[in-house]
Amino acid sequence: MFTKLARTKVFRDPIYGYIEVDYKIISDLIDSKEVQRLRRIRQLSGVAMVFQTAEHSRFPHSLGAYMMAKLVCQNVEGMNDISEYEKLIFQIAALLHDVGHGPYSHAFESVLGIFHEEMTTKIILSNQSEINQILNKNSENIAPDVANIIAHGGKYPLIEQFISSSLDVDRLDFLQRDAYFTGAVYGRVDFIRILRSMKIIDKKLLIRASGVNSIESYLMARYHMYFQVYYHPVARSYEYLLENIFKRIIDLKEEGKSLTNANYFFNVLKNKNDISSYIELDDAYVNGLIKQFCKSKDHILNTLSNAFIHRNLYECIDLSNEPSIETINEIKKSYNEEELKYYFVESKISGAAYFESKKSAINDIKILLLNGKIKSLEDYSPIIKGLITSSVRTIERIHYFKK
Amino acid sequence: MFTKLARTKVFRDPIYGYIEVDYKIISDLIDSKEVQRLRRIRQLSGVAMVFQTAEHSRFPHSLGAYMMAKLVCQNVEGMNDISEYEKLIFQIAALLHDVGHGPYSHAFESVLGIFHEEMTTKIILSNQSEINQILNKNSENIAPDVANIIAHGGKYPLIEQFISSSLDVDRLDFLQRDAYFTGAVYGRVDFIRILRSMKIIDKKLLIRASGVNSIESYLMARYHMYFQVYYHPVARSYEYLLENIFKRIIDLKEEGKSLTNANYFFNVLKNKNDISSYIELDDAYVNGLIKQFCKSKDHILNTLSNAFIHRNLYECIDLSNEPSIETINEIKKSYNEEELKYYFVESKISGAAYFESKKSAINDIKILLLNGKIKSLEDYSPIIKGLITSSVRTIERIHYFKK
Amino acid sequence: MFTKLARTKVFRDPIYGYIEVDYKIISDLIDSKEVQRLRRIRQLSGVAMVFQTAEHSRFPHSLGAYMMAKLVCQNVEGMNDISEYEKLIFQIAALLHDVGHGPYSHAFESVLGIFHEEMTTKIILSNQSEINQILNKNSENIAPDVANIIAHGGKYPLIEQFISSSLDVDRLDFLQRDAYFTGAVYGRVDFIRILRSMKIIDKKLLIRASGVNSIESYLMARYHMYFQVYYHPVARSYEYLLENIFKRIIDLKEEGKSLTNANYFFNVLKNKNDISSYIELDDAYVNGLIKQFCKSKDHILNTLSNAFIHRNLYECIDLSNEPSIETINEIKKSYNEEELKYYFVESKISGAAYFESKKSAINDIKILLLNGKIKSLEDYSPIIKGLITSSVRTIERIHYFKK
Amino acid sequence: MFTKLARTKVFRDPIYGYIEVDYKIISDLIDSKEVQRLRRIRQLSGVAMVFQTAEHSRFPHSLGAYMMAKLVCQNVEGMNDISEYEKLIFQIAALLHDVGHGPYSHAFESVLGIFHEEMTTKIILSNQSEINQILNKNSENIAPDVANIIAHGGKYPLIEQFISSSLDVDRLDFLQRDAYFTGAVYGRVDFIRILRSMKIIDKKLLIRASGVNSIESYLMARYHMYFQVYYHPVARSYEYLLENIFKRIIDLKEEGKSLTNANYFFNVLKNKNDISSYIELDDAYVNGLIKQFCKSKDHILNTLSNAFIHRNLYECIDLSNEPSIETINEIKKSYNEEELKYYFVESKISGAAYFESKKSAINDIKILLLNGKIKSLEDYSPIIKGLITSSVRTIERIHYFKK
């Protein structure tokens, strides 16, 4: 039904060796300007400030998620029964799942009140986007179907689960990719074994009992990437710094101060449906803005921006080391009221939250015994039960500028 | 004090890149016949039957443990205060810690009632061994001091802990090495980070709070290597088969049957101090014996030996799959009384036992907070507490010959 | 003499595991804004357009070159005789050797007539730079001594050779690093063996005969990285595109057209000693400019800029495939005179040039026989002789826009 | 036509991740006793004496060659036109290509006058072998067809080329595998790119011009594995030692001395068609014999055997270091006539021979230009021409016992 390329295209990739593209529509989507834009948005924003080699963008990850979708189609028992069309929209959804990300995603989203999944579906459905034009040229069903998958619309529940759940192609790719680029020893995932443990019965995904330890390993690799990489205090400091820069420029704007070159940012702040402004936002744009703010006459914006560009990040105190209250009060007292708002951040990352928020999802992982019975992962695996019930590791930190 | 080589010797190694030898005594020990013998004893015996590339011997692991001891000396804060002599006996103990192993160690030890640590100290102290002669030529203190470390004699408690505890140079090397040679994705250990987290205060080993997650990762890597590699049903089947071959030849001997070429084996069975016979036992010797038994007139020995050589291993049923009692009874009924003794094995490996037996050891890992307080690992890390209290995963299996 | 850090700092790195910093001056230099700027300049510019994971910046490479300098000090026989001061300026020179690079270096340098080594020495010597201030705070000799090394001033010939020759710390790091980040299979270098093959006699670097094959492998790895990665037609297309964008804006400026936000660029064009403008130039700045030019009213600048941002690169014809002259003429005829200047590029990369320009340098590699005699690498190694005399592989290509 | 397994079987492998078996006949062949025997024959015999981790057997390599054959079927353009039957016998030939190897192959073959390819075809065709029975059970054509391929019988020229030529599945697997297990940095091969460069036209194998550099890299990786690993002086010493042990026992036999336990060896010496004796020969058998000879009353056999077991290998002088003739004469004079025969070995390995003997084969590699023309590799690639014409690197060495 869908045109294949005369000769398949390949991308060299350190995780898979090669990523092969066989459908013309996939090749066209990769070349679209919205997917190419992902080359200009780093996957891990602040993490590169502490793991200096983690400078990779969202573009190779998007190719990787697409590749993982292909591997699911090839390796998971029962995928043969899925139609070619469904496999294709699965692969497309995997390729496009991140196109709605803004630069320095988390800080950006929290300040602008944006959700990247929402932006992804908007871009897919908007006739302003090249993606939308490519999809429609092939069939007018694809864009709404892919958007439905991204938005958990319920039309393709199995594919939805593969695109976004506690064991999806997104995570299966990024854990390994981020481990490779940070140089972290942990985070490797035996994905072929995981895929071969899966079995689809009645369009439901089950894990064979014999493969449970590969799932346990995956969940632990994930735990470690979160605590050792994604939640690293220096990476978080960088994000908070950025968040406060965004807050400051919004505050200045509200006070009526004029800021040059920040139009795209303010356009999106005003109107989340302004896709063409949104598409202009990338790391280069944000870095360019902040470099310019390094010379701002506003002392706070100037300070934050210079700190960001020249890596004079916030200091960090981990409360598990039980610092005295006096120490903290002294720090607070060193700021005036306005500074306190931007120079002092209290953060709380809950390990429990991390695991609990996924608890239902983790329990969605169903184990198929040899005798045909089905159990939840938590009931089958004592070590996972242990992780879920005891991993109440909350990280409480204070990030601040030393005066 | 101890002679250094004019030019250091290096061994290429996939884990460390190069292993460098600088002292002449180390170089001589490596060339001794007892250490060279370790080239003829596989590290993982039965595991190679399921992970076909895990064919490595104990020799590169011994070099690796020595290398890890050197890395401890170079990277752990406080090791500078240890004398050159103590560092040297530490490195020697690491190099020699496995010389007492017999071929196919576990099956061998359980049938012959031998403990490899005990044999190691005997070999180090016996004037029949080249090792002993090399050590004495340098200083007459070394042999008893190294033996004291191996035997937990209490003279060098810090070194003992590095040689044999839940976080020792043995494990730090073999987890990674076994992962490399099986091709397992898990099992990698960030050993430099672990070593840099350690700090020696008053000859006691402490772990800085900031390094706890590298210890958590190490313990999980260990958990997975146990459950996915070392306890793999096929590997266990192979060990039980070997154990039953040993048992059968002992039984036949007791019945007065003569067995050619098995003298070294029976010598050791009679006298555990017969070091020179013990040294003759290696994989080639055992394989040679068993290949010869493939033509034995004793039906059971013949069957077991052919199964071993041509890889017709026991079938395995994992009881967690809840097989019916009838199935099991039927299997049992298919054997006569004598066959039942050799053809049917009930095994129980306790995950709890694994973790609990190490529990005290794990609690020996002491965490140093930034404020100077000390906590046990279990108290500091909820995830480790979870592992210890909930990992009651017991593996119960039946291994048997299908008739 | 130079202050050491109370506790060494480490950077996780996929090539070396960890990069350790022990001197305070090194740590301060890493935090300087000129070194931090290297985070914003990609190591391989256009290569990421074809090897999409090669997105790494010059910053981790600079740390890597510093690490390689430390490894030279630790592993090369005879380095013990070098003073602490010389070792330190060697390590500093390695760390700083790339600070003079502009964004998208080659295109940039060729259009602006800049040499990055020259800019590096200017930055080191200029009292406008943080680097200069840090160096002077420690000793006023360092800045001129390091600049002398970078500029091949002849004061420290051995260190010069390690910093810039056919076998220097720069290449030893980047070949491996670029292989890792492209995912290329070739390009790995057994650097420890290379370093252990080196011997310094009378401040001259020699290679032991026993280590020649590691040098051969290194030269071949280099050959392949050049032909498979650095000279890849797509990567070159991207560079030519950029070069033509730069040329166009210079031409437009000369025609008196005004271009907003391009001040730093024109400042440097006017005055190569304007270090503070130069420092502002980085990838984000160039990308920001080009993104803005995507909306330029000048048709050519608009076309080139959109091609650059949305990856509609030049097509490429390799003349070794012997295309007909008509084909090429037809392409040329499709442009008007002005387009021809920007849309059609004839390129010639000479393999011979690559090897020959290094020929003298390669012959600088001197081999030390066991009997004490010294030979040139070319005389000792027939395979290298073969490479030098026969590798006249010239790549001739045409890059053009399809109309 | 051929039965597929209900569920594919997988083998974990460090080179490919997983090796998947889908046909029942392949699975049965892997379990045959002749293939299982390859677990007891090391791939690289003496190499493990210098690269101590290169202890891998021929069994994983045989699986690897089979996997590479599957990858050829999946990746090479034009393989779709080959019938299922031909693909299957290709994969079977790849799996079985080494079953005729004896223990410590090269020494063994040269003394016994055996060629392993010949023994492989004998085993495949002999009704004494399990392999033969398995093949015949499926179709009586397979055994002769596979034997024809191994013996270069000309019935399937394309498959013959993939099984044994300068670019065959054997080499494509072992170069990487041996690099992995030695820990060598060089020897990696971008096999997917090589396979994707291949194109079959009229049952002839061609290489696209665009892929030539991957072939160049492969040939250089091969060059380096030969000179750095396979020809390493210590590895060669070990082989010569073994060869001389074999020679000595043949000489003793001829002198009428009796030697216990050596029957299988002498059976094969007498009759090369005695497959069942041949099959009994493996590393354990040879090691067992030699360990027994360590107590031989014949001084020479005793000396050689102890040297072999306890690694007192021959010393080695490389003549390229230009030792004086007196030195060599002195060594010779230290032996009596009989000792000279066994204790002094002159060896000559010709790099030219290595490349020249393959020269025709290398010229069999045909390059397909974009315009449809075909050139020989040598004519297309100056660097290969350089290698062929100049790589007359002959290694001349003397191996001897120091007295």
Provide an overview of this structure.
The structure is a homotetramer of 403-residue chains. Chain A is of the alpha+beta class and 403 residues long. Helix content of chain A is 56%, strand content 12%. Chain A contains 23 helices and nine strands. The first copy, chain A, has helices spanning 24-31, 33-36, 58-75, 84-96, 105-112, 116-125, 130-138, 142-150, 157-163, 169-182, 191-197, 212-230, 233-254, 263-270, 275-280, 283-293, 299-310, 325-333, 337-343, 351-357, 359-364, 377-380, 382-390, and strands at residues 4-13, 17-23, 198-201, 204-208, 315-318, 344-350, 366-368, 374-376, 394-400. In chain A, the strands form three sheets. Chain A has a four-stranded mixed β-sheet. In chain A, helix 3 packs across helix 10 and helix 4 packs parallel to helix 9 (157-163). The first copy, chain A, starts with a strand and ends with a strand. The model of chain A is unreliable at 352-360 (pLDDT under 50). Chains in contact: A-B, A-C, A-D, B-C, B-D, C-D. Chain A binds chain B through residues 184-186, 188-190, 193, 209, 213-214, 216-217, 220-221, 223-224, 227-228, 318, 320-323, 351, 369-371, 373, 381-383, 385-387, 389-393, and chain B through 184-186, 188-190, 193, 209, 213-214, 216-217, 220-221, 223-224, 227-228, 318, 320-323, 351, 369-371, 373, 381-383, 385-387, 389-393.
